[in-house]
Amino acid sequence: MGLATLAAAVLAAAAGSSTVSSADPVTRPAAPPATAASDPLFGVVWRKSLVEAGLLEYRPFEPAGPVVDPVTRMVVVGTRDGHVHAFNPDGTLLWYYVGQAPYMAPPAVAEDLVFIGGTDGKILALERATGELRWKREYREVMGSQPLVDGGIVYVATLEGTVIALDAATGEWKWHFRREPIGKFTILGTGRPAVRDGVLYHGLSDGSVVALDARSGAVKWDRRIGRGDYPDVDASVQLGRDRVFVASYGGQVAALDAATGATIWEARVPYAYKLGMAGDVLHAVSTTAVVGLSTRDGKELWSTPLEGMPFGEPVLAKDMLLVPATRGLLVLDARSGRKLRFFTRGSGATGSPAVSGNRVYVLSNAGELVAVDLR
Question: Tens digits of per-residue pLDDT, 150-168?
C-alpha cells in the first residue's frame, strides 16, 4: 500500500464515519475479557479488539497508535472509528470516549489531560481520570500530528501546513503559523513539533524547516532543506545538543545549527520519510530501508531493509529500535541495525507503538491493541 493509498483510505474513513453522539462521553461499555497468548518472539500479555471491521473495508489501517501516561502507566489510543480508549496496564478498561472522525497520530497525556486531534479538525482535551470532555477547539484542517504540551501550551500540526498553539488548560487560542500549500500533490503525513528553550521546530511539505518563538509564533529562521519532486519534511525534527536533525522525502537528511538553521552536514537517503535518534545514531526510515547515520557527520553506519510501507515514527525500547510498517513491527538493534525480530498480528501495524519499561503496546491495522512484554 503506497502513501497515496493510505491518504485516500483515512480521508474516506473520515468522510464516511457515522456520528454516534455529539462527541460527548457515553456510557462506558464493559471491557472485553483479557486473553493471554504466546508468541515465539514476544510474550503477549493481553489483546483487545477495539474496532469492528466495516462491511466494505478491504484493507483497514490504524495510523494513530497508542501512548502511555508516564505518571499512571495508563495506555490511551484513538482509532479509525473516532473513539478514544484508556486501559490500565493489566488490560482493564478505564474509560471510553466516542468521537466523530479517525485520528492520524497518537494522543498526548500531560497536565491531567489527554489531548488528541482528528481528521475532522477538532482538537480535544479529555480528563485523564474519567475521559470527560474538558474543552474542544475546531480548525478547518486535518489534524496530522501528535500534540505536544510544553509550558502550558499544546501544539498541533495539520496536514495542510499549519502549526496551532492553544492554552492547554482552556483551549484558548494563542497563535498559529501557516505555510500556504505548494499547489501540487504532497506526501501524506506531518511530523510532531519539537520545542526546546522557548523555540519550536517543525518541518513542512514544501521542504522547509522553521524555527518559531514558542510563545508568539514569530519566525526565528526558515530554511529550505527538501528538494526534488516531493520535498516534504514529514519526519519529526530530532533535537541534539545544539543541532536539529531533519529528513525530507526528496532524499535529504541534514543536521542544522539550532540557533541559525545553517546546514552542518547533509546525507543522501532516498525517500526518507520518518526519523528517530538514539545517542549518536540517527535512524532514517525510508520507503525501502532503515538507515543508521552518525549524528556527528552524517556518515552511513548501516542499512536494513524495511518490510512494508512506513507511516509512524520509529520508537526506542531499551537498546532496540521498533519500526512500524504496514506489514508489521520491525525490531532492530538500535546501534548496529541488525534485525532482531519481526512482530505482526497478520494485519500489520502502521502507527507508532508505545513503550513503558519492558512493555510495548501495538495497535494493529485491524484495530486490535496488543500488550507484549519484550523477552
Answer: 999 999 999 999 999 999 9
What is the predicted pLDDT for the residue at 342?
Answer: 87
Q: Do 369 and 87 meet the contact criterion of CB atoms below 8 Å apart?
A: yes
Residue count of the chain, please give it. Answer: 375
d(CA 353, CA 72): 18
| For the chain, percent of residues with pLDDT exceeding 90 | 76
Closest residue by Cα to residue 56 from 13, 99, 1, 14: 13
Is the Cβ–Cβ distance between 372 and 343 less than 8 Å? yes
The DSSP letter of residue 363 is: E
Say what the pTM is: 0.88
Query: Whole-angstrom Cα distance, residue 269 to residue 278?
Result: 18
3-state class of 13 per DSSP? helix
d(CA 363, CA 352): 8
Nearest to 84 by CA among 23, 152, 141, 137: 23
Which parts of the chain sit beneath pLDDT 50? 1-2, 4-37, 40
Three-state SS string across 232-297, please? CCCCCCEECCCEEEEECCCCEEEEEECCCCCEEEEEECCCEEEEEEECCEEEEEECCEEEEEECCC
Q: How far apart are CA 282 and CA 335, in angstroms?
A: 9
